[in-house]
Write a structure and sequence with these properties.
InterPro entries: Ceramidase_alk, NCDase_C_sf, NEUT/ALK_ceramidase_C, NEUT/ALK_ceramidase_N. This is Neutral ceramidase. GO terms for molecular function: metal ion binding; N-acylsphingosine amidohydrolase activity. By secondary structure, the protein is an alpha+beta fold. The protein folds into 2 domains: 439 residues, no CATH class; 121 residues, Neutral/alkaline non-lysosomal ceramidase, C-terminal domain (Immunoglobulin-like, Sandwich). It has 14 helices and 40 strands. Strands 1, 4, 5, 6, 9, 11, 12, 13 and 17 form a 9-stranded mixed sheet that branches. A 7-stranded antiparallel sheet has the order 7-2-3-36-37-33-31, with no helix packed on it. 55% of the residues are buried.
Length: 686
Amino acid sequence: STIAETANYLLGVGRADCTGPVAQVPLMGYANPDQVGGGLLTHLYSRAFIVADLDDSRRVVFVSADIGMMSQRVRMEVLKRLKSKYGDLYRQDNVILSGTHTHSGPGGYFQYTLFWITSKGLIRPALNAIVNGIVKSIDIAHENMKRGRLFINRGTVENSQINRSPFSYLMNPASERSRYSSNTDKEMVMLKMVAEDGQELGLISWFAVHPVSMNNTNHLVNSDNVGYASYLFEQEKNQGMLPGEGSFVAAFASSNLGDVSPNTRGPTCINTGESCDNPQSTCPIGGAAMCMAKGPGNDMFESTRIIGQNIYLKAKELYEKASQEVRGPLSSAHQWVNMSDVSVELNATHTVKTCKPALGHSFAAGTIDGVGAFNFTQGSVEGDPFWDQIRDQLLGEPSNETKACHKPKPILFSTGEMSWPHPWHPDIVDVQIAAIGSLAIVAVPGEFTTMSGRRLREAVRSEFDSQGTPGMNVVIAGLCNVYTHYITTYEEYQVQRYEAASTIYGPHTLSAYIQLYRGLARAIATNTTQDLPRGPEPPLFNVVNMTLLPALSAEQAPAGKAFGDVLQEVRQQYRVGEVVEVTFVGANPRNSAENATEHNFLTVERYTNSSGSWHTVQNDVSWDTRFYWSKGSLGQSNVTIEWHVPPGTELGTYRVRYFGHYKKRVFITRTITVPFEGSSSAFEIT
């Protein structure tokens, strides 16, 4: 074979379920305490990619999981599991764990106190599902390593983003802004993986957009717009397989999405319909609470599909045309850093410092993608005395040092000075870069804004250039390893909108990260990663399960009914485009999550005359099916299943089936979990 067709690496891909409990657990992202899980639109997955040298001397692992963000707790537990299984093969430096940033996945997997407030504490089943899913996806990739080749491609995605803090962006120097055609990064970077024998293995796409096409009124667990893109790509490549099955893995990973919304119709007053694209994102009637951004669709489900499809179509085009091969050595660098105490040399005469973590007033305002629980307005540089008093009583006044350090941020929560029952925010943060030949993946612990990301990429690229490794493709992987909210530029920080109020280590956070990532890039370029100080190890708090979630208790069916009985039957006939709906006597879906890693709650089955048997054509991974759970009283609950019959559905006879588990009382103190199923009557698609 010619040189061009020779494998350069060993490659492995894997996908595993990480959905967890789909009921009663608060969804992570909007910090809206009313937004708790009430069912399932599609499963959440961890997607793992392993690249090794042909002589297997070095490895790099990249994982993108359909969760709000990585947490330090998840990372530490995953690495502990990998160490016990594989020894020193998978380590702090060569494993990158990234979250897609969907806002519709279960929360409760954090050890720092702030995140307990909106996710009802630390919820072990949610944490376990994520840790198990990530480890399993890595196991699958590990067991299926093949000789293969990598290709990189990049292109522009249109009509899929807006900058949601354009007034902050305009604070950046005009000379800097004039170098860019847009106030968002429209570029998608894609890594394509192909085995030596021609088998297509998978791809990773990095693109900066918030997965918030599903808004904060949604109660169905799902992976949002980027998850829909993964679904479309995997369905196309894994032909003839049910959703969630097949070996091809397509990850749509996060990047510097801090100020980037998919809600392209922009901020609109939901009560009057007029624009609220002003520096405070506030409406004449009803204030900031009425200002919400709209997606391109008629509802959030349609908007999710439109944005997801845009992303998928660009990825497909880049994948098909990818010809630039990635070659060269593998390398990885990682450090733990105390981000509350970094000295940054801005120039020869000027040194500044980062701060103990704190959140500003505009943090509580939320964004145009999801307003805050209180009607604070964005862009608050004046403290509100009422909330200040509540804060002082509950949480204590911030120290003068912290106040001065964070200026001009008015501090709402001085989280870095709160340590009961455990610290409220991390001090010890991961910085990490992995290089695969000419591709440098910069793993960042939060949400960099558009301009912050541009500055970081440029700094890392120029560091590689000056150390004799020119022409690196530098990509930012967002929401990696530990969550530290947002990272704005120094200029954006001055106006204190939501992203700036959530830049927890103060105005010089970005400068500190640039200094740190330059150091990692230098170590990789000069082959001195082994000399990097490891830094202070993060704490692992002894929290087993600290949750306000209601306990799972015995359940019962209504009088004269059994679990899985139909309460509201399907119609006899439907057309393509209509919604098939059936309601069953149900049980708490948490029973199923705690009983199995990958539970399928439903199937849509078609009757085949020739064989006289039913065949599954859809499951609960499908974006065409929706599973709703509603709790009644006296241990009773209902499940409603919808099938939105898609274009191209084969005509014929169908039925919908439901699979659940209920808690049955056996002794006064003991319950057991009992599986059950139900089925609708047969109906025709005509």
